[in-house]
Amino acid sequence: MRTQARMKLDPQKLLIIGLLIAAVALVCTALYRPERDGQPGWAAVNEQVKQTIGPIEKVADSSADAAKNDEKKRQQTRSKVSANASASARVSAGATGASAKDDGGETVSSDGKVDINHATVEQLDALPGIGASKAKAIMADREQNGLYHSADDLLRVKGIGPKLLEKLKSFIVLQP
């Protein structure tokens, strides 16, 4: 009978033992952290947000950098155009005794823009997107159709489209 008395447990003791086992199970579960890649198809939300926003931030940063680079390229091209204009004017003046003016107008304005109505092939060639063949085509179009009245008249020249024209507008000027 004594063994039966010992075997019989009080309901309070059973409750305490059950709670202790549950507490140990909760602590073990809290401390156990499975690897993040353990479940296929699952990704942390932060990683997904970074993957989504990352390229957008890069595009925004690169757009700002591109705008700065475009302005630098414009300034470099203006300097190059001015240098080419000065050099060709010196060569022309030295060879013919003439001034740097053609038909009464300057070929390069004071702000470095090229007058497409009076520019030489070399000066036109210095413009961004204009090579020797397009410069010759501009000259041929100007000789065939007369002076340009607006920058949009350059669209007549083969190889000059709306995109290139927009790029050129900040580098050219039209003088009669």
Automatic annotation (TrEMBL):
SUPFAM superfamilies on file: RuvA domain 2-like
Natural source organism: Paenibacillus taihuensis
One GO term of the biological process aspect: DNA repair
InterPro entries hit by this protein: Competence_ComEA_HhH, Endo/Exo/Phosphatase_dom_1, Hlx-hairpin-Hlx_DNA-bd_motif, RuvA_2-like
Domain Helix-hairpin-helix DNA-binding motif class: 122-141, 152-171
Gene3D superfamilies the record matches: Photosystem II 12 kDa extrinsic protein
Disordered: annotated segments: 60-114
Domain of life: Bacteria
Pfam family for this entry, one: HHH_3
Protein name as it appears in the record: Competence protein ComEA
Biased composition regions of type Low complexity, renumbered to the chain: 78-99
